[in-house]
Specification:
alpha+beta, 26 helices, Beta-Lactamase, elongated, DNA binding
């Protein structure tokens, strides 16, 4: 057993004239008495008891406090037997670990104190813990003032970082090296509140004989763990006093103090992490060329980069904390999407900037942080820049020039010269002619020869759009204009053509009700989206094309005559292919050359019998039909030439 004959040599001599021994000496003498009695040293035991009776209160009075626990402590260290009814399981296990560490229950001055330089280094490493604990421990110290208690803060290694409290208690603790810099782990001093708290990572309250060392039996200690923001154990806070003052509320007070310190560390960590995140976001935002605003799930603005501030004409201090609804008051769909945690694709948002109305296109993307909090990133683009991007992506560019119009017939050349004259102005043009004569090619050429050549070229086939959708396609529509409408509305084709040319093919198929609205576009240069009341100013040139006689159709009330006159400022009549037979051979050769370049095959020739057939054919489909015939004939030819038999 732990207490054996080897401890009978322990000697406790009282100095002469020492008439006022302290509690530490009393506990040591008491432990010596127990050891002598256990070892059968009756004579030495009687001497120890005599000394106790001479200089202290009777032993019976000293052992009266927590007698059952004390007897269990004596029994364990004398016989190894365990009284589980009196001593808690975690205390017994801690005693066993202390014994395995080679510790003695009667060891004097159990606390090992580290050097001044070492404690300085340790305190620097635990500066955040110390700083966070100071206001909490000060409050606890004031609450425990004049109660005989002392307050202790230790790090995760059990090193005491700070001790303060009642002067008498501090003086008594100092005699046992229970001071700043001492180590209170189980391995160093055996079962104690700090060591057991750090070992179990749970709040602990010990009193009297529950301590391993006899010199600690006069104490009651309540200790609670302090955790880092990541939940790791980083220290313990402890309240210690005379054992006869033990109370469960003391532990509750210590637990509350430890939780307050842990919470303070979390708050400081959160502030620090938020500052880091803000700096990271700021750096990222500066690197992004697009204008970005970050908002939370309620639509409150958290951050914005300089480009966004420039677009909306506000400074960062004014913007932060504002609701999106105040910055963009005329677009409820944007705020609805943000609060619903939904993304939104390119909605038009009007803003007031420098006392002028401007339009932005806003995309909203839902984002989520590691804590599960959602927000949105708003990407802002000036409407004009946005439309340019759409035009580029949609290929809204004219692809042909006047050089691409093949033919030498006088009837064709006259119309080409007229078209060139029209291109030099901004006048509206009406191109007429049969199907397949190349009316769209003329429209492309006019645009590319005009001052608008760097602007968009938007072609709209009025016959290809369903009647019930043509107005929304051409004019665009506002948010919620009709069932199934795209959230945020949609930009119409005419808006896409702003700054360039719109080509209305098959204009005769435009419904009369849409003709009325389009007439207004020609009259005042504005459009009003379907479902909206705000007019939008446009700068567009209009070129229209038809294979019908619009004047005749207007007489029969199939087309508005006032619209016809508005469109036909310059009227170009593209001749049919049968009216320019001299161009058939030239066009046929040109189509074969293009096909050869595409396919990589050698260009075939047209045999005389095939050319005779081509020249005498009526060509109801005009140039488009000729192009198709040449492609088919080339595919079916075998000897490098197209013969009449290869023609359909």
């Amino acid at each position: 057993m732990f207490v054996s004959a080897r401890y009978t040599c322990v000697s406790l001599r009282m100095p002469r004239g020492y008439n006022n021994p302290n509690k530490e000496e009393l506990d040591r003498l008491k432990c010596f008495l127990i050891c002598m009695q256990t070892a059968g040293r009756v004579e030495d035991a009687m001497l120890a008891k005599s000394n106790l009776n001479a200089h202290f209160d009777p032993v019976d009075q000293i052992l009266d406090f927590h007698e059952k626990q004390r007897q269990a402590w004596l029994k364990f260290f004398s016989t190894g037997e365990i009284d589980g009814k009196v001593i808690r399981h975690e205390i017994i296990e801690s005693w066993k670990r202390s014994v395995r560490h080679g510790l003695r229950p009667d060891a004097p001055k159990t606390n090992v104190k580290i050097s001044h330089q070492s404690i300085k280094v340790i305190k620097e490493k635990n500066s955040e813990l110390i700083e966070a604990s100071e206001p909490v421990m000060e409050s606890l110290r004031l609450a425990a003032k004049d109660t005989g208690f002392i307050l202790t803060l230790a790090d995760h290694n059990g090193v005491v970082l700070a001790v303060f409290g009642d002067e008498k208690a501090l003086s008594f603790a100092k005699k046992n090296n229970y001071v700043e810099g001492c180590c209170r782990t189980e391995r160093e001093v055996g079962t104690n509140a700090i060591g057991l708290c750090l070992y179990s990572k749970k709040p602990v309250q010990l009193s009297g004989p529950e301590h391993f060392n006899a010199s600690h039996h006069a104490w009651t200690c309540s200790s609670a763990p302090v955790t880092s923001p990541e939940g790791e154990l980083i220290g313990a806070i402890t309240l210690s006093g005379e054992s006869n003052r033990v109370h469960k509320h003391t532990l509750g007070m210590v637990i509350s103090a430890a939780n307050s310190i842990s919470d303070s560390l979390k708050r400081k960590h959160s502030i620090k992490e938020k500052r880091k995140a803000d700096q990271l976001i700021e750096s990222i935002f500066r690197c992004i060329s697009e204008a970005i605003i970050m908002v939370d799930s309620k639509g409150l603005i958290l951050h914005a980069n300089h480009k966004a501030l420039h677009l909306i004409g506000m400074d960062i201090k004014t913007l932060l904390g504002q609701s999106v609804s105040k910055i963009f008051p005329r677009n409820q769909s944007l705020l609805d999407a943000i609060t619903a945690g939904e993304s939104l694709n390119s909605v038009e948002v009007p803003i007031e900037k420098n006392r002028k109305r401007a339009f932005l296109m806003v995309k909203s993307y839902v984002v989520q942080d590691l804590s599960g909090h959602t927000g949105s990133l708003l990407f802002l683009t000036e409407k004009k820049a946005y439309l340019n991007r759409v035009r580029e992506a949609s290929g809204l560019r004219a692809g042909y020039c006047f050089e691409d119009i093949v033919g030498g017939a006088d009837s064709l050349r006259r119309q080409v010269e007229l078209a060139k004259t029209a291109a030099a102005s901004d006048s509206r043009v009406l191109i007429t002619g049969e199907t397949g004569t190349g009316k769209e090619l003329f429209a492309h050429a006019i645009h590319n020869a005009s001052d608008r050549k760097n602007g968009p070229f938007v072609a709209i086939n009025c016959a290809a759009i369903p009647r019930d959708l043509i107005e929304s396609e051409i004019m665009g529509y506002a948010n919620g204009a009709f069932t199934g409408a795209r959230q945020g509305g949609q930009t119409g084709k005419l808006e896409l053509a702003d700054g360039g040319t719109v080509f209305l093919d098959e204009i005769s198929q435009m419904p009369l009700d849409v003709q009325v609205k389009f007439l207004r576009v020609l009259q005042d240069g504005t459009i009003t989206r379907l479902g909206d009341t705000k007019p939008i100013k446009l700068d567009i040139r209009v070129i229209a094309a038809t294979n019908e006689d619009l004047y005749e159709k207007g007489v029969n009330q199939g087309f508005r005559q006032d619209l016809y006159f508005r469109l036909s400022v310059v009227e170009i009549q593209v001749p049919s292919l049968r009216d320019r037979p001299g161009d058939i051979e030239r066009l046929s050769t040109e189509f074969l050359k293009r096909n050869s370049q595409k396919s990589g095959r050698e260009c075939v020739q047209i045999a005389p019998d095939a050319m005779t057939y081509l020249l005498h054919y009526n060509w109801p489909g005009n140039i488009r039909e000729l192009e198709n015939v040449m492609e088919m004939a080339e595919l079916t030819s075998h000897d490098g030439a197209i013969h009449a038999e290869n023609l359909p």
